[in-house]
Amino acid sequence: MDAGHDHHQTAVSNAAHRHSGRLWAAFVLLSVLMLVEAGTALRTGSLALLSDAGHMFTDVLGIGMALAAITATRKAGTDPQRTFGLYRLEVLAALANAVLLSGVAVYVLVEAVRRFGDPPEVLAGPVLVVATLGLLANVVAFALLRPGARESINLRGAYLEVLADLLGSLGVIAAAALIALTGWWWADPLVAVAIGTFILPRTWRLGRAALRILVQAAPEHLQVTAVHDRLAAVPGVAEVHDLHVWTLTSGMEVASAHLSMTPGADAGDVLTAARTALREDFHIEHATLQIEPGAEPGACGAVEW
């Protein structure tokens, strides 16, 4: 394992340790409110509150999977057989979060459409109180998860779920207030539909991002042709081929390439310049570059960072 990889793995481990306390706090807080919302929704007949409780359940499950992935990744870093640790676990957790949240959203939409024909009476008072508590819990969880969402797709999945749930709680509060003031029962399924349609596009984007990593597609923010042209412009490089760029996990782009040298070029200088170009122009810290000699024999070698 190379020094660059060790450095990145240490950084990921430190980041995981830094955010695990916040994750645990959000996990406990949302678990308690989820149970309160679900019980109140069943007692009052509110589909909007039930959808919010279901959404909060995916928050809790998503954060739990995030914690499990972080723990497993950190432990795997000490296993010499796992040369890349278990970085992909966080991507799998993010994909599972997207699938679960999509399922909840679809269920709420179907149930809401069914209720439009005969909206049941909803006890607005208890719904309003519990939804307000849920809003406060989501605001706290949102603040706890926001810093880690910039560093990890796994944490970003939990963060997006809490953000959507926060907005959902606002919708439930509005529906309960409207029912209490006007007796307009259709407000409950309407808010449920709004929550479902808000959730789906965001979860599909998260799932798409996770799938891109799992199928080892090139990162969306990088143009492979630009990477190719930049390497080809390195002094001493005659040709670039077998270039591959992919994402191993959040914030860790990886590249491999074969560089054919011009006659008389120094392999060490070419490797140093190529490494600098990848790091400074594309933020690629981990690359495997195979040097292929030009006219001089014995210049072939491979260096991994």
UniProtKB/TrEMBL annotation:
Keywords of this entry:
Ion transport, Membrane, Transmembrane, Transmembrane helix, Transport
State the GO CC annotations. plasma membrane
- Keyword Kinase in the entry? The reply is no
For the Cation efflux protein cytoplasmic domain, which residue ranges apply? Answer: 220-293
InterPro entries (alphabetical): Cation_efflux, Cation_efflux_CTD, Cation_efflux_CTD_sf, Cation_efflux_TM, Cation_efflux_TMD_sf, CDF/SLC30A
Q: Where in the cell is it found?
A: Membrane
Q: Which Gene3D superfamilies match?
A: Cation efflux protein transmembrane domain
| Signal peptide residues on this chain, from the entry's feature table | none
Membrane topology, as annotated, equals:
Multi-pass membrane protein
GO terms, molecular function: zinc ion transmembrane transporter activity
Chain segments annotated as transmembrane: 23-42, 54-73, 85-110, 122-145, 157-179, 185-204
Domain Cation efflux protein transmembrane: start-end pairs: 23-215
Q: Which family does it belong to?
A: Belongs to the cation diffusion facilitator (CDF) transporter (TC 2.A.4) family. SLC30A subfamily.
Q: PANTHER family of this UniProt entry?
A: CATION EFFLUX PROTEIN/ ZINC TRANSPORTER, RE54080P-RELATED
Q: Indicate what this protein is called per its UniProt record.
A: Cation transporter
